[in-house]
Write a structure and sequence with these properties.
Elements lengths: L5 E5 L17 H14 L3 E4 L1 E2 L5 E2 L2 H17 L5 E4 L8 H11 L3 E4 L4 E3 L3 E3 L3 H14 L2 E6 L3 H11 L8 E6 L9 H7 L8 E6 L4 H10 L4 E4 L6 E3 L2 E2 L2 H14 L7 H8 L6
Parallel strand pairs: 1-2, 1-12, 2-5, 5-6, 6-9, 9-10, 10-11, 11-12
Antiparallel strand pairs: 3-4, 7-8, 13-14
Helix pairs in contact: 1-2, 1-8, 2-3, 3-4
Cofactor: Zn(2+)
Keywords: Metal-binding, Transferase, Zinc
Pfam family, one: BKACE
Length: 280
């Protein structure tokens, strides 16, 4: 039997706006409702960013607490289960603030971006060596699984460095995020180049940004991925000119997985596959 497929819903991200799509969840209540909808559609993991009162990207600890508290209550009230993966990305914020919500909220996963890049040729997506050491140590201390987001090939070399230093622990879970300008393109050549470089025993998931979203899902399934990431953080359309909801994007990924002969993993099955520590 083929291994089960983990669907991650990246609901809001740091930059998707209401001007781009009316469906992006911005407020804590909207994010909580969308997590429930995505869990019902088949998502095992919800990857969360938060926004301030003006809809701008935020790393404020109190905002994370508000959002995650509402998400957890909404999921429990619906009788559902989902793994929460909280972002630590945020070059505009202090490194201390980027870590502050983790010991308070104790998510099962958090993002780990193992390098810096010129994001969309417009600003520096900054992840300093000092920050990556602190984040790796914090994940080990708290029992949080880092989701290692790979945007460029050099980031895999950085991963090897932190493995040797004991600041990352195998088995790793890597999330390819392809076709961000400034990173590697979303195509078959990129995937074929990156996959052999993953540390042995790693699990991996894939997403493509914008027009490469569907092609990278299909390529990932053909290459035997462990997961697909979908959501309005990465792509706002169901088809050209048709705005998608997060739940619709999850449902499409579920259908793609089934066509490829893959059963869809529940949250509990995803925990087993990724070696997650279920937090209380």
């Amino acid at each position: 039997m083929a291994k089960k497929l983990i669907i991650t819903a990246a609901l809001v991200g740091a930059g998707t706006t209401r001007a781009q799509t009316p469906h992006v969840p911005i407020t804590p209540d909207e994010i909580a409702a969308d997590v429930v909808a995505c869990a019902k559609a088949g998502a095992a993991i919800a990857h969360l960013h938060v926004r301030d009162e003006n809809g701008k990207n935020s790393m404020a600890t109190d905002k994370f607490v508000e959002v995650v508290t509402k998400v957890r209550k909404a999921v429990a009230d619906a009788g559902l289960d989902i793994v929460l993966n909280l972002t630590t990305s945020g070059s505009a914020f202090s490194e201390e603030l980027r870590l502050a919500h983790l010991p308070i909220l104790m998510p099962e996963m958090c993002s780990y971006d193992p390098g810096s890049m010129n994001w969309a040729n417009s600003y520096v997506f900054l992840n300093t060596p000092a920050f990556l050491e602190k984040l790796g140590a914090k994940c080990i201390e708290l029992g949080i699984k880092p989701e290692i987001e790979i945007f460029d090939a050099g980031m895999i070399g950085n991963v090897e460095h932190y493995l040797k230093k004991g600041l990352l622990q195998q088995p790793l879970h890597c999330q390819f995020v392809l076709d961000v300008p400034g990173g590697m393109p979303g195509n078959l050549e990129t995937l074929a180049y990156l996959l052999p470089k993953l540390p042995e025993g790693s699990t991996w998931s894939i997403t493509g940004i914008g027009k490469s979203h569907v092609p990278m899902m299909l390529a990932g399934l053909a290459a035997g991925c462990d997961g697909l990431r979908v959501g309005l953080e990465d792509n706002i359309f169901l088809e050209k000119g048709v705005h998608a909801t997060n739940a619709q994007l999850v449902a499409r990924a579920v259908e793609f997985g089934k066509v490829a002969g893959r059963e869809i993993a529940t949250a509990e099955e995803a925990r087993q596959m990724l070696g997650l520590k279920k937090q209380q």
